[in-house]
Amino acid sequence: MGGAFMIAGGALRGLAALMLVSIAGPSAAAADPPDPPDPLGSVMWEALRDQYFGDAPLRFDDRVKVSAPADAEDTRAVPIAIDASALPDVVEIVAIADLNPFPLVLRYHPHGAAATIATRIKIQQATAVHGAARTADGVWHVSGVLVDAAGGGCSAPPATYAQTDWADHVGEVQARAWPARADGTARLRLRVRHPNDTGLVAGIPAYFIETLSVRAHGAAGPGPELARIDSLEPVSEDPVFSLDLRPPPGSTALTLSGRDNQGGVIAATIPLPAPVPTAAADRSLGQ
Q1: 236 vs 12, residue with greater confidence
Q2: What topology does CATH give the domain 45-284?
Q3: Using an 8 Å Cβ cutoff, are 195 and 207 in contact?
Q4: CA distance 272 to 178
Q5: Strand ordering across the sheet containing 58-60
Q6: What single DSSP character describes residue 70?
Q7: Whole-number mean pLDDT of the chain?
Q8: Is the pLDDT of residue 22 over 80?
Q9: Alpha helices (H) in the chain, listed in sequence order
Q10: Which is it for strands 127-135 and 90-97: parallel, antiparallel or unpaired?
Q11: CA–CA separation, 29 vs 1, rounded Å?
Q12: Where are the domains of the chain?
């Protein structure tokens, strides 16, 4: 009995060692190489990478173009644009202002749109602004710029509150769509009246737009969702967005719907001009 027990014990120990090798060995061999360092040298990048991208593969890619002023004139409304149209099959775009109290600015889902978005954001201090585009294969492609700023854009109270009737105009939409171009995209520029308050001022709760969705509309009724913006605290007061949409043939209008974090509803219908014939467009450009 004792010998049998010792043999069984040895067999178990050998099996355990074999299992340890089979588990640890391939894992170590298959481990992904570490990400290259952030070209902008952001001190927050490592933490933000883990927080917002997790274990997804990520690479720095010059095909993602991030535009912003080198010096912010108004830290409450800094214009930024992210253009990832050089990448194939972009399913999501993310904007991050690394040193903001709320780094994540927005997530953009261009279902039926070009992989580009422009808006205005709040900047709390000089920071790296990263733009990341996720392609259908799950890879995040990242680029960015440095923005110098005097600071305070996120903690300043909205100017909207100085108007006695501001609450009567929350959610009002001003928008314009341009005719579809030769590549099938139609430019939409929209502005929503809203304080977009971060909640960093004592005694004032956060109050900001959370979601905006754009759909095509034709003779048959509502069409597919073309784009969705998941907006967060750092987007500027009275936010402005510029999108390049691909409405399906026969679309006569765009419908905008959304909500804010306190349940307020946003809705608008924007007429969509008929496509301009190429010859007419050429003549209008003097070609």
Answers
A1: 236
A2: Immunoglobulin-like (2.60.40)
A3: yes
A4: 7
A5: 58-60, 140-147, 127-135, 90-97, 104-109, 221-231, 209-218, 251-260, 265-271
A6: S
A7: 88
A8: no
A9: 2-30, 45-53, 278-284
A10: antiparallel
A11: 42
A12: 1-31, 45-284
Asked if 235 and 196 touch (Cβ cutoff 8 Å), the reply is yes
One-letter amino acid for residue 29 of the chain:
A
Q: Which residues are 221's β-sheet partners?
A: 218
pLDDT at 165: 94
Rounded average pLDDT over 119-138:
98
SS (H, E, C) 145-203: EEEECCCCCCCCCCHHHHCCCHHHHCCCEEEEECCCCCCCCEEEEEEECCCCECCCCCC
Q: Average pLDDT, stretch 33-38?
A: 79
Looking up tokens 């967005």, which residue turns up? 241
pTM: 0.84
* Whole-number Å distance between alpha carbons of 252 and 215: 11
CA distance 74 to 32: 42
